[in-house]
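Translate structure to sequence.
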């Protein structure tokens, strides 16, 4: 009997999720499986929004941002009764295996379903790059590029007006988006949860830049570092005498056509997810380690602590002021 595998996307959407869905569906069909998609993440699973698909279903999506399967957050999926509803839907469709694309929260859902008899594989998909069990998450590269496009534009006006602009980027509690885009932009300062800096030191550093030739500065800040970035830049202006503005890039960072890197990594992950199911794995997630795809038990992956890239954080201080 052929395997029946479903795929869903969950949590914050990320560019490249579609490329991964495409790889899952196509490699599954080519391996002789019946392939299903679930709309609206775990919420749709509970509601039975499930459909069997053929290879044409995923045509022309490799270049599309967002997720054609849509996404949702369902905190109630922690509850046993809600999980049982999802299991019933899967049984009704005869589905034995589920591939989920998302972050840690998505993995937790997959682990619970595995305890209830469904073979599950998690694939890392989030712009934040905040999953400890992988060095790369689908969507991160596209998001960094989107941030750079926006900061390039902000640079123009910041320069013209000789101002300082604080740009707040996403990342949840992870500083990678700020760090990598800050490096790519040569930002005067990069402020992340991984490398905290006191308000006094921020003011002192900006004041020290004031006397130099360059009359403008760009500061990239991770979200959640300052409770209200607009209030904080008022303080910066008061304390430094430098006219300072703030921009929150917000959800536009999650959109856009995926870069070739995201399309390629997403495709590799999708193929490997199906392979893992066919190898009889369950309750595992995939990660990238030294560029190679590896498998971890979800329980082990969720115990791992994300390590900030201190080498890079320190090295960049030699170049950026
Ligand atoms: O996890 C992705 C992410 O975009 C985070 O960077 C951000 O903190 C969060 O999701 C925003 O979530 P929502 O779309 O629910 O506002």
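Result:
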């Amino acid at each position: 009997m052929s395997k029946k595998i479903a795929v869903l996307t969950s949590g914050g959407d990320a560019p490249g999720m579609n490329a991964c869905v495409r790889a899952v569906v196509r490699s599954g069909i080519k391996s002789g499986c019946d392939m299903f998609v679930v709309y609206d993440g775990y919420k749709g699973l509970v509601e039975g929004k499930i459909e069997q698909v053929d290879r044409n279903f995923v045509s022309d999506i490799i270049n599309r941002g967002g997720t054609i399967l849509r996404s949702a957050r369902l905190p109630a999926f922690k509850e046993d009764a809600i999980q049982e509803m999802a299991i019933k839907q899967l049984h009704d469709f005869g589905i034995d295996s589920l591939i989920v694309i998302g972050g840690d929260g998505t993995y937790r859902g997959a682990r619970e379903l595995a305890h209830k008899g469904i073979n599950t594989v998690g694939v890392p998909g989030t712009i934040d790059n905040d999953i400890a069990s992988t060095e790369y998450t689908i969507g991160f590269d596209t998001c960094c590029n989107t941030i750079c496009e926006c900061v390039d534009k902000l640079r123009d006006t910041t320069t013209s007006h000789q101002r300082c602009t604080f740009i707040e980027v996403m990342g949840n509690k992870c500083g990678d988006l700020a760090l990598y885009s800050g490096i790519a932009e040569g930002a005067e300062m990069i402020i992340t949860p991984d490398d905290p800096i006191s308000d006094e030191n921020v003011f002192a550093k900006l004041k020290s830049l004031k006397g130099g030739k360059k009359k403008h500065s760009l500061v990239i800040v991770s979200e959640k570092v300052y409770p209200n970035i607009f209030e904080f830049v008022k303080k910066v202006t008061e304390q430094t005498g430098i006219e300072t503005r703030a921009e929150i890039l917000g959800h536009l960072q999650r959109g856009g056509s995926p870069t070739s890197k995201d399309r390629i990594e997403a495709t590799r992950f999708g193929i490997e997810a199906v392979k893992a199911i066919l190898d009889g794995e369950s309750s595992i997630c995939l990660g990238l380690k030294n560029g190679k795809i590896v498998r971890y038990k979800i329980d082990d992956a969720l115990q791992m602590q994300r390590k900030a890239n201190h080498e890079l954080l320190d090295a960049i201080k030699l170049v950026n002021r």
